[in-house]
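Hi, can you check this record?
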Amino acid sequence: MVKQIDQLETFWQKIMLTNVDERYRYASPWSWMLSEARTEGLDLPPEYEALRKELDEQAIEAQFDNMPI
């Protein structure tokens, strides 16, 4: 479990250091990692869930931004 917590923290830091306009690309892997951690019974900080929601919203917006008119 400690290893998984360390991986989450490392990935969270990587996302936070990424340009805001590019972070949405991490939506799927971040969501998957959180899901796996919850399955393991880990208690996650609220910042992790807030970031998941933010990334999901950005990913949806990016899909519409890239649609041809």
